[in-house]
């Protein structure tokens, strides 16, 4: 009885800790929230709300490669450690958000400033937002209505949208990008499925290099040199490794099995 | 006449000093232009890395290593952006080089 008196509280504490460390089911993001990134390396220290970055706003105009290779944004939230001074010098967000560059006949708003008036504060809160605005949500639904639908993620099939010419992502910025030769695309290849009955994966380099180029994935994400030598498990992928670096976070989620496991099975 | 000559000598010195300071004032901008061109040249071939030969890849890796030393001397933001970009190019060339060398190994 006395032993029980000690064991029960210890068990309760242990279960409580396990619960706190992710025992709760992760909330599935809403379509307009999918791909959203909170950047808060220095904002709150400087008295500003964190930056709420929406991938969907940007990926309709620019390739992943342009921002993550040529401009230098890291692939994980907060890894770039962007400072307002970097933006003011014309790097990172300030590469485009400089008050000079134009897009669709409009000037792209300036990103950061040393000082600002009450009126100018409205510009700050375009990125440094305390909460998601209804206007932004509405903007997303207006945009997604015109796009081919998808079952998961933010409900937009970006691949088909690009194929149909509904979006034309820019891959080159004058003065920022290095002029490159046209890419020689390697052919698709199959990755054997480990689960019986599950079709093999047909990996398309073509589909990926259109958005990402080569250097974004090799060797940082996919280090294996020889085809078939690296073993990937779905557990690792769901932990955010390999395909999971993009898929689940910004690109369509890995729960959409049929998007990758596409090899025709016999019989 | 002698005085004029003396003044002329001083004037020459002033002009020379002006030229030297102008050269040093322009030097960082000039060198930045040069290393940016070298950077673009080194990273421009990342799209066709698979088609490059082993000596070409080795040459590009050496070029990246040389550039790294120059970029390390630049101001903080430039360093942060360009060292990352350079590292990505270099790593890709190294990755392709290793793949090619493995292919060449006798089985």
Outline the structure in words:
The complex is a heterodimer of chains A (267) and B (107). Chain A folds into two domains: 36-145, Alpha-Beta Complex (Cytochrome C3); 181-267, Cytochrome C3. In chain A, 28% of the residues lie in helices and 7% in strands. Chain A has helices at 2-23, 55-59, 64-70, 84-88, 121-124, 134-145, 158-163, 205-212, 234-238; strands at residues 36-39, 51-54, 102-103, 106-107, 189-191, 201-203. Chain B is mainly α and 107 residues long. Chain B contains three helices and no strands. The termini of chain B are far apart. Chain B has one domain.
Helical content class of chain B: over 70%
Q: Greatest contact pair?
A: A-B, 30 and 29 residues
Low-confidence stretches of chain B: none
Gap between N and C termini of chain A, in Å? 63 Å
| Largest sheet geometry of chain A | 2 strands, antiparallel
CATH topology value of the largest domain in chain A: Cytochrome C3
Which sequence of SSEs, written as H and E, runs from N to C of chain B?
Answer: HHH
Q: How many domains of chain B?
A: 1
How many helices of chain A does DSSP assign? 9
Helix/strand-derived class of chain A? Answer: mainly alpha
Shape descriptor of chain A reads: globular
Structural class of chain B: mainly alpha
- How many angstroms does the end-to-end distance of chain B come to? 88 Å
* Silhouette of chain B: elongated
Number of DSSP-assigned strands of chain A = 6
Fraction of helical residues of chain A: 25-40%
Task: Report the total helices of chain B.
Answer: 3
Order of strands, main sheet of chain A, comes to 1-2
Which superfamily, in CATH terms, is the homologous superfamily of the largest domain in chain A? Answer: Cytochrome C3
Radius of gyration of chain B: 23 Å
Classify the oligomer: heterodimer
